[in-house]
Design goal:
five-stranded antiparallel beta sheet, elongated, 5 helices, two-stranded antiparallel ribbon, alpha+beta, TolA/TonB C-terminal domain, 251 residues
Length: 251
């Protein structure tokens, strides 16, 4: 069975849309607006409207402070005394005239006795005596002696010095060599020391004498009293005494 191919059929054109298009609506609105403006300008009146007379309008004016109604608004009317309150009868006083202080009488001077001038002062000076005071405008200068301290010219103690191997060994007990009362100069005393490991002086020998036996004996006694720090071995050294002498009184 032969089936003929269906031929395509073209669709009919769509019917035009019902109503006005947007362009027509805008055109009509524009025509109506233009016509409205034309009627306003053609039919509008150009007469000046006269002002209407104003009648029965409230008028404001400043109140008089002396008005009774204004006085009633005073908050102190019934608190403080007031000339218009209920106690005004007691506040009403008679008006008193102010006295005049102008002096109208001619000046009259009192008579004066010229002979008695200064009599009172003279009587006061005759009955009152005062102690005379001498005015000393330039008092005598007070002598203040200067306070000076004169140092001692000569040293009060003798000097000593350690030399040799034990010179660098620290001393535990220091000594003080006194000055000797001698009217002459004394030569130095030289003493040799032997110090053991414990730091004690075990032997003293006088190497050089001063020529004054009390000075040499003092040097030996001071050398024996020395104490040194402990060391690992025996050490030798020397101590030199430079004696300071103090003159004795004259015979």
């Amino acid at each position: 069975m032969n089936v003929e191919a269906a031929e395509p059929h073209s669709l009919p054109n769509p019917p035009p849309a019902a109503g006005w298009s947007w362009k027509k609506i805008y055109f009509v609105i524009l025509i109506a607006f233009a016509a409205h403006l034309a009627f306003v300008f053609l039919l509008g009146t150009k007469k000046i409207v006269p002002l209407r007379a104003v009648n029965n309008v409230p008028v404001f004016r400043l109140a008089n402070p002396a008005d009774e109604f204004i006085a009633l608004t005073d908050p102190t009317l019934f608190v403080l005394p007031h000339r218009n309150d209920f106690a005004a009868i007691w506040l009403r006083t008679s008006a008193n005239a102010s006295p005049s202080f102008q002096w109208k009488e001619a000046p009259s001077f009192l008579p004066i006795n010229t002979a008695s001038l200064g009599a009172t002062f003279t009587a006061f000076m005759q009955t009152n005596f005062f102690a005379a005071a001498q005015l000393n405008f330039k008092p005598e200068p007070q002598l203040i002696p200067p306070q000076t301290s004169v140092p001692a010219v000569l040293p009060q103690n003798s000097a000593w010095q350690i030399v040799g191997e034990i010179a660098g060994r620290k001393i535990l007990s220091a000594i003080s060599a006194p000055a000797l009362a001698v009217n002459d100069v004394i030569a130095p005393s030289r003493v040799q020391l032997l110090v053991d490991k414990n730091g004690d002086v075990v032997s003293v020998v006088l190497l050089e004498t001063s020529g004054y036996d009390p000075a040499d004996q003092t040097a030996l006694a001071l050398a024996r009293s020395l104490r040194f720090v402990p060391a690992e071995k025996l050490m030798f050294g020397e101590i030199l005494f430079n004696w300071q002498t103090v003159p004795t009184s004259a015979p």
